[in-house]
Specification:
Layout lengths: L1 H29 L4 H8 L13 H12 L10 E6 L2 H14 L18 E8 L5 H18 L3 E5 L1 H8 L1 H10 L5 E10 L20
Helix pairs in contact: 3-5, 6-7
The chain binds flavin mononucleotide.
The site of flavin mononucleotide has 11 residues, from β3.
Length: 211
């Protein structure tokens, strides 16, 4: 009987929490003080950074948030490599500049990852249809958690395309040791921001409520 009472009070406590927590969130959202909404609405892609790589403890938190993203049947069909070795970023950039010499003429150009000192390489499982979705959701968790801690980022498709196409860059991909059937999908550059970009316009008309 005692055990039943404990179980009952635990169930009541859980259902109370699940009833009240969203209501509190909704009230906060209305007066604009919800921190998640604030983070989402203030985040912008950053392409100018301070030179130092992101602290690895902070990257660890970012990755913890990443792998806690929703993902199809919890298969976690993603693999990630974090690179903050300036030599590797420099060598890859040299290859990139050989093929894209004009880009290096930009006085703001520091590297091919939109100048970020820390880069996450995200690979998807090519045998699992939802894997790119899972990777995208993970990426957004990483980007938003980073921004909530003052770390800027930029999601990058271009460098991933380049690395898969350029034979010398492919060697770096090999060294990353992604599992069989995994393929680089996107990169995310991270760093301490040295700019505060303005929001680009969004088309709200793409969203319609159906009655
Ligand atoms: C899948 C994906 C690929 C992207 N690839 C690049 C890229 O190669 N180079 C770049 O500078 N930005 C890239 N971006 C960043 C977008 O340009 C940026 O998110 C968009 O213009 C909206 O701006 P905002 O992030 O500041 O809101 C990419 C974003 C996504 C989601």
């Amino acid at each position: 009987m005692k055990a039943f009472k404990i179980l009952l009070s635990a169930v009541c406590a859980c259902s109370l929490f699940s009833c009240t927590a969203p209501a509190q969130q909704e009230a906060k959202a209305e007066d604009g003080k919800n921190q998640v909404i604030e983070t989402i609405m203030t985040r912008r892609s950053v392409r100018k950074y301070q030179p130092q790589a992101v602290n690895r403890d902070t990257m660890q938190i970012i990755m913890e948030c990443g792998i806690n993203a929703p993902n199809a049947i919890n298969r976690q069909a993603w693999e990630v490599r974090i690179v903050d070795n300036p030599e590797v970023i420099k060598k890859l950039t040299e290859l990139y500049v050989k093929d894209n010499p004009k880009e290096a003429e930009n006085p703001n150009f520091k590297n091919m990852f939109r100048n970020a000192p820390t880069v996450a390489f995200i690979a998807n499982d090519t045998t699992f249809a939802y894997s790119p979705v899972d990777c995208g959701l993970m990426a957004e968790n990483m980007i938003l958690s980073a921004w909530s801690m003052g770390i800027g980022s930029c999601c990058l498709g271009g460098p991933a395309r380049f690395m898969k196409a350029n034979p010398e860059a492919k060697e770096y991909l090999k060294q990353m040791g992604f599992s069989e059937n995994y393929e680089l999908l996107l990169c995310i550059g991270f760093g301490y921001p040295a700019e505060t970009p303005k929001a680009k316009p969004r088309d709200a008309a793409k969203v319609k409520f159906m009655d």
